[in-house]
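Box 3.1 A note on notation
Throughout this textbook, protein chains are presented in two layers. The first layer is the amino acid sequence; the second is a token string describing backbone geometry. Keep the layers aligned when reading.
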Amino acid sequence: MKKDFLSILDITKTELGEILSDAERLKRQKRAGVPHELLRGMSLAMIFEKSSTRTHISFEVGMHELGGHALFLNAKDLQIGRGEEIRDTARVTSRYVSGVMIRAYRHGTIEELAEYATIPVINGLSDREHPCQLLADILTIREHFGDVRDLSVAWIGDGNNVCTSLVLSSALTGMAVTVASPKGYGVDPGTLERARKLGGNVRTVATPEEAVKDAHVIVTDTWVSMGDEKEREKRLAAFHQYTVNDQLLRKAAPDARVLHCLPAHRGEEITGDVLDGPQSLVWDEAENRLHAQKALLVKLLKKQ
């Protein structure tokens, strides 16, 4: 049976470990110039309702380096942009390609696509989760710190899709995750409950200072996600004390490192000094989207 990747919890602890190890191996092979065309003859449909830089480039380059082919499909150019039902697109696409990656506004759209597709479906981003980003984040943390278990991770900002995936991932990694968000912008309580029931170590606090105390990793993201632009001024006012800056970073562990999934808005959720500074792993994190997703593609498509 096919396996989809719609949530970070669609893989087990064992599968996460395998993906991370494969990603490290594929990264070494790429840097050494060793061919690894493990998906020769396979194709990946990439459906984009939302614009993208890292997701688009990393999946397309990844399929190429694995010996396969990726098709960029803007939803506006497909028949779904003219009203064709997702279930019909899923059935037809399954006859042409080996897998689908979709970046959608609604998580329900991805779930329906996966329900009717007979090939693996990957969530490239939805309003609920961004699991591919978490694969890259965990890979980056593991590269720098080694064993990720019991590391303290602080999330500063909006309880958005990346935050949701981070909280849920604690059940797989053993990392202790603390979330600091303004009132009304926190992570969904149901997500916290689910993570805890599965063994995740997660908590919420009122201030960024409390969240970063002795933290090994600080993670942030834009305050205004795609689709929230109408609330920009309201959000900027709500989040103005949640900037990751040098002063906040000094309250974390001495060896703390900073992650940001990008795009970044210097001077809002993070200062330029931190983003471009010696404690930032942001550029390694961005690169690791490629390696982690290549490992994921091999894991899902090689079984087909």
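The first strand starts at residue 43 and ends at 48. The chain is about 40% helix and 15% strand.
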